[in-house]
Write a structure and sequence with these properties.
Oligomer: single chain
Strand content: under 5%
CATH class: Mainly Alpha
EC number: 3.6.1.27
CATH topology: Vanadium-containing Chloroperoxidase, domain 1
InterPro entries: PAP2/HPO, PAP2/HPO_sf, UPP_Pase
Shape: elongated
CATH architecture: Up-down Bundle
Catalytic activity: di-trans,octa-cis-undecaprenyl diphosphate + H2O = di-trans,octa-cis-undecaprenyl phosphate + phosphate + H(+)
GO molecular function, one term: undecaprenyl-diphosphatase activity
Keywords: Hydrolase, Membrane, Transmembrane, Transmembrane helix
Number of helices: 8
Length: 195
């Protein structure tokens, strides 16, 4: 498995001959693309509204953070640049690489739209998540298997979220909306946000 991981990394990782536009695209995906998550969730809560989707996504992200932290503790894996493998064009601290937290967050976000929104935009978000995963390997801070692990954590997190939602989802949604209606009473009355 390590040999496959290494070979895939060497196929994906940036080289001195890589075109500048591809490097800039990868840097944009690494540095800016992840910011779409809070923006879309905020829009989905305040204006669309798709509040069940937002809450499920946040629960899945919470599960993902816990699972990723546990995997990182029990199965620590050093990053490629620590092993002196390939080229690194992105500064990063020496933390365990498996699974990728950025990849996990992006995959959970995309899977949330695929599983719970059932719209074509979920496919677009999955392409976006794959772009983030590719960019982190391309710029030398993650192994390909870190991204496979991130995807698996995202799947398990969504499964756990659906299970929790089947038990307590309706009451959790109702209570969350009550709090929202109280806190945002003025913007709701002025029709700045949806009820």
């Amino acid at each position: 498995m390590e040999n496959i991981n290494y070979q895939l990394f060497m196929m994906i990782n940036v080289t001195p001959d890589s075109p500048l536009w591809l490097i800039e695209l990868a840097k944009f995906l690494v540095e800016q693309a992840i910011n779409i998550i809070p923006i879309v969730l905020l829009i989905a809560w305040l204006w669309v509204p798709r509040r069940e989707l937002v809450i499920k996504t946040l629960i899945a992200l919470a599960f993902g953070v816990v699972l990723a932290k546990a995997l990182g503790m029990f199965f620590p894996h050093v990053r490629p640049f620590i092993q002196g493998v390939g080229y690194q064009l992105l500064g990063h601290s020496n933390t365990p690489s498996f699974p990728s937290n950025h990849g996990m967050g992006a995959f959970i976000f995309a899977l949330s739209f695929l599983f719970w929104n059932r719209s074509g935009i979920g496919i677009c978000f999955m392409a976006w998540a794959l772009g983030i995963a590719w960019s982190r390997v391309y710029l030398g801070v993650h192994w390909p298997m870190d991204m496979v692990g991130a995807f698996m954590v995202a799947l398990v997190s969504c499964f756990l979220t659906q299970w929790v939602w089947s038990l307590w989802g309706k009451s959790f949604l109702a209570n969350s909306e009550k709090i929202y209606h109280r806190v945002f009473i003025l913007p709701i009355k002025k029709s700045w946000v949806k009820y």
